């Protein structure tokens, strides 16, 4: 790629942030709202009173604000990186970056919220630990696949 390193860095960072935002939105929309498997603090404040439902709904909203911030930051970096017509828009680079971001988000969020803080679990109840480990494994796998895509793209560019 014949582009300045800072442009490539912005392009990769944009993909990572957009991947993180997408993973956060998927988690919040699918797991919190549609499936209703958990909410942000449902392991410490179960949904058994109106006050706890309100508290969980509030923290779910804060979670979505965070997802929005990640997404907007990713869009700004994407625009900055691609505003220069000399920047090569590589699908492999973007997809790899996106998968790294999505996987990193799932892994970090799962490690902190599910394991360290225990404020919620992927699917509480029977096999709770298996669901949590599966979520961590999914996150790590997505990040590794993304990293491998980036490495492959760099090898192809350098040959």
UniProtKB/TrEMBL annotation:
<keyword id="KW-0472">Membrane</keyword>
<feature type="transmembrane region" description="Helical">
    <location>
        <begin position="61"/>
        <end position="79"/>
    </location>
</feature>
<keyword id="KW-1133">Transmembrane helix</keyword>
<feature type="transmembrane region" description="Helical">
    <location>
        <begin position="12"/>
        <end position="35"/>
    </location>
</feature>
<feature type="transmembrane region" description="Helical">
    <location>
        <begin position="128"/>
        <end position="150"/>
    </location>
</feature>
<keyword id="KW-0812">Transmembrane</keyword>
<dbReference type="InterPro" id="IPR018719">
    <property type="entry name" value="DUF2243_membrane"/>
</dbReference>
<feature type="transmembrane region" description="Helical">
    <location>
        <begin position="91"/>
        <end position="108"/>
    </location>
</feature>
<dbReference type="Pfam" id="PF10002">
    <property type="entry name" value="DUF2243"/>
</dbReference>
<protein>
    <submittedName>
        <fullName>DUF2243 domain-containing protein</fullName>
    </submittedName>
</protein>
């Amino acid at each position: 790629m014949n582009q300045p390193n800072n442009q490539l860095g912005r392009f990769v960072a944009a993909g990572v942030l957009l991947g993180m935002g997408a993973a956060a939105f998927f988690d919040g929309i699918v797991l919190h709202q549609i499936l209703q498997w958990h909410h942000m603090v449902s392991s410490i404040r179960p949904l058994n009173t109106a006050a706890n439902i309100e508290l969980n709904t509030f923290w779910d909203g804060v979670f979505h604000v965070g997802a929005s911030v990640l997404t907007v930051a990713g869009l700004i970096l994407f625009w900055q990186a691609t505003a220069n017509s000399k920047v090569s828009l590589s699908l492999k680079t973007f997809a790899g970056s996106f998968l790294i971001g999505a996987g990193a988000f799932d892994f970090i969020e799962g490690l902190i919220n599910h394991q360290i803080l225990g404020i919620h679990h992927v699917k509480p109840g029977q096999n709770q630990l298996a669901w949590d480990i599966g979520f961590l494994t999914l996150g790590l796998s997505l990040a590794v696949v993304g990293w491998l895509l980036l490495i492959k793209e760099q090898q192809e560019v350098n040959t």
